[in-house]
Design brief:
Layout lengths: L1 E9 L2 E3 L2 E4 L2 E6 L6 H9 L6 E6 L2 E5 L4 E2 L7 E4 L11 H6 L7 H15 L14 H14 L4 E5 L7 H15 L5 E6 L2 H7 L2 E6 L2 E7 H6 L4 H6 L4 E9 L2 E4 L2 E4 L10 E6 L5 E3 L10 E11 L3 E8 L9 E6 H6 L7 E5 L6 E2 L3 H4 L1
Length: 361
């Protein structure tokens, strides 16, 4: 288990993450400049935080107040950098064995051969990085991180240098390789899709701070604040008034909400993910809850679906449009086009009330 809470200052930027990551893969997800890679460098021992502590499986790697800062080579931490950082003058075997210089020669050779088989690179042992494909270099970099048998493996955007087709293929290979790794893996990524597919836990970071961390479904379906909701794609964010134990008024539209609400009269922000908004056939409106009539104002065709914007009838402009992901076949069957009237439903179990902005800060 990894526990960390530290502060590192560089220029005008303050990195201050607080996070607990158990065994398995946790994604550190956030936009460029959020502090993801700086966090990895601090955990690897390549940067020294000004204050705080880092503990790994009960070992203290950093305790600034006690003057403890374990050197990088003693941390039992493996790192796979974004550009792989392979030594161009060393072969695949040379790169894999670089961190094994403290092992007896026979033991190091045995470990390298086992890693070559695991990576399916036995026929490339004598090649140099310049003679390998991007995917092969990525596997060598991952193997070099794993071969030292670390307690913590740090992956800094390991797939970002690959094209889309190669990235999807290598992502599956990375997950297969990590399935046998019994330690903690921290994956840095700015791709929400990659974070969701690869990790069971997601930590959202921005401005140098962890905004929310937890199981991926919890973070995506129950973002704590507006900033987290925006980061994880819960882009339908609205404001309403609580009028009952489970009822909101949104510009005159009454909405039922399954989760607990604050006292009546409270003004709250709530969100719903675009894929959770339902298009309703006009003859099936009766008997449904949270049904809203509106007009389709915009649409954009994507790979396998449409991104729709619906403006609720009777609501003021500041109410905001509702964004919907519509499957291509449904768009065809309903003969949707901008300007036409539509009915939508906001499922009560998919509406989520956000904390106030003050709680976020």
């Amino acid at each position: 288990m990894l526990d960390l809470s530290f502060a590192y200052r560089t220029g005008g930027f303050v990195l201050a993450p607080t996070l607990t990551a158990d065994r398995g893969l946790t994604a550190l997800y956030g936009p460029s400049g959020a502090g993801k890679s700086l966090t990895l460098l601090c955990l690897a021992g390549l940067l020294r935080p000004d204050t705080g502590w880092v503990r790994l499986n009960g070992r203290t790697l950093l305790d600034a107040s006690a003057g403890i800062h374990v050197p990088a080579h003693q941390r039992k931490v493996g790192v796979v950098f974004q550009e792989y950082a392979l030594f161009p003058h060393l072969t695949v075997v040379g790169n894999l064995s670089y961190g094994l210089n403290r092992l007896p020669r026979a033991d190091a050779q045995e470990r390298v051969q086992a890693m070559l088989r695991l990576l399916r690179l036995e026929g490339f042992a004598a090649r140099y990085p310049g003679d390998l494909s991007g995917g092969q270099r990525q596997r060598v970099a991952l193997g070099r991180g794993l071969i030292v048998q670390p307690e913590l493996l740090l992956l800094d955007e390991p797939l970002s240098a690959l094209d889309q087709m190669e990235r999807e293929r290598l992502r599956d290979e990375v997950m297969e390789l990590l399935a046998g790794f019994g330690g903690t893996t921290l994956l840095v990524t700015h791709s929400l899709q990659e974070a969701y597919i690869m990790a069971k836990e997601i930590a959202v970071i921005d401005g140098g701070r962890i905004l929310q961390a937890g199981p991926r479904e919890e973070v995506l379906r129950h973002p704590r604040t507006r900033r987290v909701a925006e980061h994880v794609g819960a882009s339908n964010i609205f404001q309403g008034e609580v009028i009952g134990p489970s009822t909101l008024s949104w510009h005159g539209v009454l909405l039922q909400v399954d989760e607990p609400l604050p006292p009546p009269g409270s003004i709250v922000r709530f969100c719903v993910r675009p894929e959770d908004v339902r298009l309703v056939w006009p003859d099936r409106v009766a008997g449904r809850v949270n049904v809203v009539s509106g007009r389709l104002v915009r649409e954009a065709k994507r790979d396998v679906d449409y991104l729709l914007s619906v403006r609720a009838d009777g609501g003021p402009a500041e109410a905001g449009d509702i964004t919907i992901h519509s499957p291509e076949h449904l768009h065809f069957l309903m003969k949707l086009q901008p300007g036409m009237g539509v009915w939508i439903a906001l499922p009560p179990d998919r509406l989520h009330v956000l904390e106030t902005e003050d709680a976020e800060r």
